[in-house]
Write a structure and sequence with these properties.
With 348 residues, this protein is of the alpha/beta class. It folds into two domains: 108 residues, CBS-domain, CATH 3.10.580; 231 residues, Spore Coat Polysaccharide Biosynthesis Protein SpsA, Chain A, CATH 3.90.550.10. Helices cover 27% and strands 29% of the residues. It has a seven-stranded mixed sheet with strand order 10-9-6-11-16-13-17. Strand 1, helix 1 and strand 2 form a beta-alpha-beta unit. The protein is globular.
Length: 348
């Protein structure tokens, strides 16, 4: 049952190295091994949850391991392993022998493919891109090219890498250009479906135009440049049993003044030009089809509106922290910065 696709790491390696190791494997997990003995398993989700707790990327992976790691043995039946994976909402589990030596990995995709069916993709590409004018006077922002491919083509490729085969594009501004440029999606390895908004419907309103699919919806703004693993985002969403998952990215802003730290009217300290860090919405979401009922059909509706409606009903919304590259092409300066980065990388 040896599995060459399984990635192993040592417990003294850094969390950053652990993240890179999980990304290198098809299962988004790395088996932590010391002297050939399995100590535990580290998943992409484990590392993102640690990041949410404030764990530094230069910490060691051994600090993240569970005292009672979830492992299977070679003699466990398919039904037993399937139930373990279902109960813990995991896509895969490591298999070890009686000496805790690695034997391989069992995968839900092999035991119950329906349980991990790929999400349906939704790209919201209807915006006017006002801040990028005059670039967007004749071409919609998602069709601007970055490093040899249009922004929307890069997102479609990332969806396909996550197993997505059906991608819906919600259109408004210059809708016909997307249909002419992208066609059926065959050359991108997906099936494209175009949905025209009758009017500008906000960041969530166009979801009301879709028939709820049997799997989660992977939703993204159409003007993002990112290296995020969308498959990891869907796994994370399923692990937490969320109704909606919001991708979050760290935003840092320097305060150009000395900030007064106080207690009541007493000054405790002056912090000179601190950098404030906040987790902000990255414009990417995983949405359970049953929550589409919260989206009205007759008026514009935003993603914050949808989140608020879900939370008011006591449902679960979780945050998926981005550890990968991400850029929102919102301004001319940002567009030129990303263009330059890709030009340098391609020349290297």
């Amino acid at each position: 049952m040896a599995d060459a696709a399984v990635v192993t790491i040592r417990p003294d390696q850094t969390v950053k190295e652990g993240f890179e190791a999980t990304a290198a494997g098809s299962d988004r997990l790395a088996v932590v091994v010391d002297d050939a003995r399995v100590l535990g398993v580290l998943t992409d989700g484990d590392i993102r949850r640690a990041a949410m707790r404030g764990v530094a990327m230069d910490s060691v992976v051994g600090d993240l391991l569970s005292a009672a790691p979830l492992l299977c043995t070679p003699d466990q039946s398919d039904a037993e392993v399937r139930e373990i994976l279902r109960a813990h909402r995991l896509p895969a589990v490591a298999v070890v022998d009686e000496d805790r030596r690695l034997v391989g990995v069992r995968r839900m995709s092999e035991l119950d493919p329906e349980a991990v069916a790929a999400a349906v993709g939704v790209l919201m590409v209807g915006g006017r891109g006002e801040r990028l004018r005059p670039l967007t006077d004749k071409l919609p922002k998602p069709l601007l090219r970055i490093g040899g491919a249009a922004i929307v083509e890069r997102l479609i490729a990332s969806f396909r890498a996550a197993g997505v085969r059906d991608v819906y594009l919600t259109l408004n501004y210059m809708a016909e250009q997307f249909e002419e440029k992208l066609g059926t999606g065959e050359r991108h390895g997906v099936r494209l479906h175009f949905i025209r908004e009758p009017e500008a419907m906000g960041t969530a309103g166009s979801l009301s135009l879709l028939e709820p699919p049997p799997t989660p919806l992977l939703v993204s703004n159409g003007d993002l440049v990112t290296t995020v693993d969308f498959g990891a985002m869907v796994d994370y969403h399923r692990y937490h049993g969320a109704d909606l998952t919001v991708a979050g990215v760290e935003y840092a802003a320097e305060v150009p003044y000395g900030v007064l730290r106080t207690a009541d009217h007493h000054l405790l300290h002056i912090e000179e030009k601190p950098t404030l860090r906040q987790l902000v919405s990255a414009g990417m979401y995983v949405v359970q089809p049953e929550v589409l009922r919260y989206v009205p059909r007759d008026r514009p509706f935003s993603m914050p509106d949808l989140v608020d409606a879900i939370l008011r009903d006591g449902r679960t919304v979780t945050v998926f922290p981005l550890l990968e590259r991400w850029s929102d092409i919102g301004t001319r300066d940002e567009f030129e910065r990303v263009l330059f980065e890709f030009a340098v990388e391609e020349d290297a």
